[in-house]
Amino acid sequence: MRLLIWYWGRRGAGAQRVVTLGRALRRRGDVAVALSVSRQMDLLAEVEALGLPTDIVETYTSGAGFLLGLPRVPGLARRLARQAREFRADAVLSVMTHLWTPLVTPALRRAGIPYVPIVHDALPHPGDPALLWDWRLDRELDAASGAIVHSAEVGRLLRARRPGLPVETLSLGTDLDAAALAPASGAAKEGGFLLFGRLRAYKGLDLLRDAWPAVLERHPGARLRVVGEGDAEGLAPGLSALPGVRVETRWVAEAEIPALAASADALVLPYREASQSSVVPLAFALGVPVVATAVGALAEQVADGVNGLVVPPEPAALAAAMARMADPAERARLAAGARASGAALVDWDARAAELLGVLRRLGVRDGG
Questions:
Q1: In 274-347, alpha helices (H)
Q2: Do domains 2-173+347-361 and 178-342 have the same CATH topology?
């Protein structure tokens, strides 16, 4: 199979996915891989180090850059289609959507090039900007010959939206491999609970705030660290003033994420809504158990009582689960379960083999 992997985003899980997936596919003898990435990507040096045929395109780093760059998009769309034709790609795989993606995909359809997006969300998250959200997703799906999802819940929603579109599920592993996670695995623990990532309304910081006093009643020394980009105080007024709580409002760089996750005794995901979370497999790969609310696909990812605890999205239930997780013996048992679950999630050779099987089930031919 000849596969062109496309991601024009700047940072986040999509960039790391290009690196890890590209590295794993390069080790195989039954697939040829080319890449199309942004010059503004934070992990560009790591992408170039893969030694794969790569087209590096100028995108943008700001809102003004997005608008000023729009006149270039038709040319970039033709450039992507031309790269796919010259590489003789059997499919173009988009690992994560980008604001320009819906403007580019029609060119792939017109050129007759099979296009397969990995769709992470079938609905906008509550509280997130939703302007043109449906239009953007529909444009992608109009051009797609099939789609890949990471959970049964997102698959169900996508099939309801597009009954005739082939949809297959690819298991969600970490976006890092075992070698990248090894240094973090041996790091000293700061302890306590951790919530990290983009701080948005659907992440349920207000639920966490309301649950925390009850956790402290049972475990007065409990600690909670909240780290991420966003307005934590606006989302949950008073959270940062609670005893044992430390809020760090900042972007978490990719290189910092493994050590940050490994430093915690447990991760907490008090979400009000979710598709699936890339935080969960990372935590398990590091042997860190998770407390999560039973929304979206989180209950698919976290096995209640095995590698974490899953509860309804309401403060009393969340507090009870966090108090249970704060018990050292219970936490040790769940950490062992997390470590066992995580062993398979860092195997990117297995992820690559699974991806190729999914693409074949979606009808991507091996043209050679």
A1: 279-285, 298-301, 315-325, 328-342
A2: yes
